[in-house]
């Protein structure tokens, strides 16, 4: 216990010196309690954030084959194209993963893979054209459903695939 002296006024108006007490042991307990509370809250918040896993994307194409380290579940083929060059962002219509899976340019990548960026001016635009016509058919169907009243009985169904 630490004693400090300060002046206090008694009821009679006389000034006297009165001891002021500070209990340093309780102060240390309060500091310890606050510190442990802060540490626990900090640990809880760090666990809630999680960690971002990295994946390896191997780009195959022009100008050169490149390996990119991207974020799992966050990075998209469009982000990969931005790393390669602005021209690839503008002209790429579709991504091809592992040489056989067409992938939307804005859909996040989930695992390590090889990546090719497809456009409509390539020597083999078959996959990009197929995706384009499929998208156009969905848009046309949505426009027709929106244009007609529900009483018209418009029902969209699947037709045979177009031979492209």
From TrEMBL:
<protein>
    <submittedName>
        <fullName>39S ribosomal protein L39, mitochondrial</fullName>
    </submittedName>
</protein>
<dbReference type="GO" id="GO:0005840">
    <property type="term" value="C:ribosome"/>
</dbReference>
<feature type="domain" description="TGS">
    <location>
        <begin position="53"/>
        <end position="119"/>
    </location>
</feature>
<keyword id="KW-0689">Ribosomal protein</keyword>
<dbReference type="InterPro" id="IPR004095">
    <property type="entry name" value="TGS"/>
</dbReference>
<keyword id="KW-0687">Ribonucleoprotein</keyword>
<dbReference type="InterPro" id="IPR012675">
    <property type="entry name" value="Beta-grasp_dom_sf"/>
</dbReference>
């Amino acid at each position: 216990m630490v004693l400090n002296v300060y002046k206090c006024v008694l009821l009679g108006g006389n000034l006297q010196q009165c001891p002021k007490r500070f209990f340093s042991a309780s102060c240390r307990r309060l500091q310890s309690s606050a510190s442990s509370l802060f540490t626990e809250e900090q640990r809880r918040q760090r666990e809630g954030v999680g960690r971002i896993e990295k994946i390896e994307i191997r780009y195959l194409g022009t100008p050169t084959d490149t390996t990119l380290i991207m974020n799992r579940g966050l990075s998209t083929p469009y982000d990969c194209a931005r790393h390669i060059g602005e021209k690839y962002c503008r002209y790429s219509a579709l991504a091809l993963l592992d040489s056989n899976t067409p992938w939307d340019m804005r859909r996040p990548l989930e695992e390590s893979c090889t990546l090719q960026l497809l456009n409509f001016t390539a020597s083999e635009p078959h996959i990009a054209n197929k995706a384009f016509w499929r998208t156009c058919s969905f848009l046309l169907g949505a426009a027709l459903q929106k244009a007609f009243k529900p009483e018209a009985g418009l029902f969209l169904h699947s037709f045979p695939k177009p031979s492209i």
